[in-house]
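User: Some background: our group keeps a shared notebook of sequences we're curious about, and every so often someone picks one and asks for a predicted structure to add to the entry. Today it's my turn. The entry only has the sequence so far, pasted here. Could you supply the structure so I can complete it?
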Amino acid sequence: MTPEAWQAEINKAPLKRRTEYKRSVIEHGLDSEFVADALAHHRKLLSWMADSLKTGPHLAGESFSNADCAVIPCMLRLELLKVSRMWDRYPSVADWWARMRTRPSVKAAIFDRMTEADAAPFKNLAPDPWQKVQELLKAA
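Assistant: Of course. Here's the predicted structure to add to the notebook entry:
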């Protein structure tokens, strides 16, 4: 996006703090002041998921529920950002995500509807973000 286009886009955010967050991440990437906190939140989510998956195949037990639906977009974004290795230490989360990716409703609602244009911004992330993310996770 041109600077004007992304400025217009982020200025649509109804909360000033959200606009600051978006601007910082766009301008500084993984060096943004907000990244460490975001990674900590994701790490906490993954830990919560692993604990929840001890009681059943889904996040709220035996059946697919809103809990699963709520987390799927987050997992997809982490995958698109090439940091899916965050859940390597949580095999139950990796298994859950593999099942969610092939679930017919998820496939139809998300993956079948994703266009090349949707995926394009994530195709050639350079440099590979994982090394920096790994450093930030170790420092936390």
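Suggested note for the entry: The mean pLDDT is 92. Helices lie at 3-10, 16-28, 35-52, 66-80, 91-102, 104-111, 116-123, 130-139.
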